[in-house]
Amino acid sequence: MYGLSAILNIARGAMNANQLAMQVISHNMANVNTPGYTRQKVVLETQVPWNLNRLKVGTGVQVDSVIQCFDRYSTRAIIQNTSSLKDYESKALVLSTVESLWNETEENSLSQILDEFWNAWQDLASNPGGTAERTALLGKAEILTRRFNSLSQELGQIGQNLNTNLRAGVEEVNRLTGQIAALNVRIRTAEASQTTANDLRDQRNQLLEELSGLVGITYLEQDDGSLTVLTREGLLLVNGNESWDLSTEGTSIYYNGIENDVSDRLTGGKMGGWLDLRDETLPQYLANLDEMAGTLIQEVNNLHLAGYTLSGGTGMYFFKDFQVAPGVPNAGDYSGAAAYISLSSDVLGTPENIAAGGISGAPGDNGNALSIAALQTDGSLVIRKWTITDRGQSTTSNPQTGSLYDYYQGLIGELGIFTEDTNGNQDFTQSLLDSLAGVRDSVSGVNLDEELTEMMKVQHAYEAASKVISVVDQMMQTLLDMR
Question: How far is CA 329 from CA 326, 334, 336, 409, 455, in A?
């Protein structure tokens, strides 16, 4: 076909193509602030030319496709690093709470309370017969035991809060995997006609990023456009139109209703961070706190049992002994000691039973009070340092020789280093994500200035096509007038 009708068809095709291009530009501009939206672009191509004798005569333009300006590398890297960032963020938040419990800048820090406890023994040594000094010592000791009890309780409460977070996280994972499976179906159906479901793919990528914030994942796109999603350790979450749910019971996480704990196959993201804290970090701090409390009980009691009260009595416990109540640790096993530590019935409310006297037992003898006070700086104590790894599967202890003060300062130092390291990793990962987001946005993001420029180009092309139609109309009118 050639002649005026062919020109009209070319102009009409140009108007249709530029009208669709204008629609895509409008869609981009409308979604400039939509999270996860990927800029779209119309791909134009020339129509099949028409043979005229020895000539190839063009027949105009048509829309080949509407594509996404999509960078697979930066998108996948963002999804992977989002998992790491949320892991560090969840740990940093909890560690800041733990640090506040052990805050050495506050007046009621364990370190200061311990100092006041030892100082009270020194005061008693200065006046071993003084009722005021004995009463003050019992008061300081009760404050100390309550502080240990409180720290143990608070660490346990943080663990319970993490369990609550994990239950909510499991529900959110199930919601997201279900939505991804549903989008797999819609995308597969939409792309059966060889067209790309751009907006549906954007929605699915946004869900993937949210899912990676909860747990580390890997994913693979199938030939039909659907995704297979697994955890980093190979636990299948989504495959095509199917998704597999997680569930919780107690501290266990089950997969697809099978009663086999799969917590160790969930790493990265918020849930991975919560599990690391619940099963490694918190138990390790609590074990070392128990070790410190248990050592304090054992060492003070050993000396106190051999000392003499005001009335000359001996064999008195200062702290409640491990062996006097069933179900509590025996000597040498200090698990639960921080929650258990309390004053014994021998001295509670009976300050005269404090065994300040030494071996002579004579009135005014302060030998035992001095010996107990010296425990503060006794560097010959053997105290175990606990390390818990592999989500609680590996628990080891390393005997350390030093004072209770040195042991406690070591715990505080390790907590500070761990927290600083976590915050540093969080800042680095956030910086990396910001850089990756910049790369992705440079390709996929909507720039209003660019879209306005493109809109003007399309507008002029549309006007030019309409002008062609107007000119052809005049030419046809001229032909009619000639008849």
Answer: 8, 6, 7, 25, 77
pLDDT of amino acid 326: 46
For residue range 149-204, what is the model confidence (pLDDT) as tens digits?
999 999 999 999 999 999 999 999 999 999 999 999 999 999 888 788 999 999 99
CA distance 24 to 223: 26
Contact 39, 446 (CB under 8 A): yes
Among the listed residues 397, 391, 172, 381, the one whose alpha carbon sits nearest the alpha carbon of residue 265 = 391
- At residue 461, φ and ψ (nearest 5 deg) are -65, -40
Residue 305 pLDDT class (50, 70, 90 cuts) = very high
Distance, in Å, from the CA atom of 148 to the CA atom of 334, rounded to the nearest integer, reads 13
Q: What angle (nearest 5°) sits at the alpha carbon of residue 104, between those of residues 340 and 342? A: 15
DSSP state at residue 319: B
What integer is the mean pLDDT of 312-328? 76
* C-alpha to C-alpha distance for 239 and 184, rounded to whole angstroms: 9
Tokens 């070392």 belong to: 288
pLDDT range class, residue 479, cuts 50, 70, 90: confident
User: Which stretches of 346-481 are assigned E, i.e. beta strand?
Assistant: 382-389, 394-401
Over its C-alpha atoms, the chain yields an Rg (Å, rounded) of: 37
Q: Say what percent of the chain tops pLDDT 70.
A: 95
Contacts of 33 (CB under 8 A, 6+ apart): none
d(CA 443, CA 431): 19
Phi-psi region of 470 (alpha: psi -120 to 50; beta: other; left: phi over 0): alpha
Structure-block tokens of residue 97: 């709470």
